[in-house]
Amino acid sequence: METKLARIAEIAKRQPKEQFTSMYHLLNKELLRQCHEELDPNKAIGVDQVTKAKYAERLEENLEDLVGRLKRKGYQPQPARRTYIPKDEKSKRPLGIAAYEDKIVQSALNKLLQRIYEQDFLDCSYGFRPHRSCHGALIQLDQIIDKQSIQFIVDADISGFFNHVDHEWLLKFLKLRIGDPNILHLIRRMLKAGVQEEGRLEPTEEGTPQGSIISPLLANIYLHYVLDLWFVKRVKRQSRGKAFMVRYADDFVCCFQYEADAREFYEALIQRLKEFNLSIAEEKTKIIRFGSKAEDWYKRNGGGRPSTFDFLGFTHYCSKNAKGTSFRAKRKTSAKKYKIKLKAFGSWMKQHRHEKLEILMATIRRKLTGHYQYYGIADNHPNLAKFKREVEKALMKWLNRRSQKQSFNWESFNQFLKRNPLPEPRIYVNIYGKRKAKAVVQ
């Protein structure tokens, strides 16, 4: 199977306009079994209430039945179970949890499509792609701002992107590379499967369920044609100065040398998105002066500090290098993400405060380490240290509520931490060092 998938990737790379007309037969028992084995057994379950372990009890029979339904076009995806996770302090983000068998089929289809579209996607695209992380996007953005005479940033936000993907446009885009009608029919069925919430079935006439296995790839395909190619082939060529974009899923930042180019792009972006059933969130979209000349401009025009922008959980701001001799863009944990993370930790601590201390402390160490691994980039150490102190305060608060008698004062709590130390803040990504060389600027 890996040989067949590699062959698809080879053809897609060698022939950028090749249309793949025979792929459906690759959704066979071998690939479906592989996808079943790779699925995480701890993921949330869908409307069918089937877990990986339960499906595996009759694995051969289940896979034979699934392959038979796929062959005779009798496979019908079940509605996704809608749940919610916190988006910010005031709102929640809807997620669609697919049924277990649907996860298998989505994973298999994702493997096939990914081999094709990974050859097509541009270097400015980072979201949910193999070996292309958030840190990679941040490194590339830093290199663009630092090396390409950038002075203006368009910080754009698409309003409810995953809820407004136009199914017909998406299928038109897919037909440029996928000529197999059975694959297209399967994708259409997945898109139209609907969402179930509190026993109510809601049809899905637009959008892709955020949280499903195939949704990120379909979103990337949509934005590849709507945004990426348009920016590279139209915007860059028509700009008077330099122009660059870095996109992670539906979150993107555009960089310009000249203000006129930035403003023209902003107006054109509104019209471009409108053509494809999308719109910008105007309250979250802005043009700011940002770069090596921003601080001097603000000084000449009434003082104040240069504007900042948020991208991938970090606030980007104008600063100087360690010697104070030259411009450097720096990053710190965004205030919004910082508050959300602390609130989530406090809620978790409240629910788990009665666990055995060794189990509780081991989990907290993992949580802190995970926070450091993502937010531990150059210049952000002070925010990591601040986060650790706030975690310690929350820990003391909820340990003191394990019983009616207060267990700790600060002196005894510090002794407790010496016996049960938490990991110290650590920088995992030196955004200005060797990792920077991996970034690619178009």
Automatic annotation (TrEMBL):
Reverse transcriptase domain: residues covered: 66-316
EC number(s) on file: 2.7.7.49
Domain of life, source organism: Bacteria
Xref: PROSITE patterns: RT_POL (PS50878)
GO molecular function: RNA-directed DNA polymerase activity
Pfam family, one: GIIM
Keywords for this protein: Nucleotidyltransferase, RNA-directed DNA polymerase, Transferase
Protein name: Group II intron reverse transcriptase/maturase
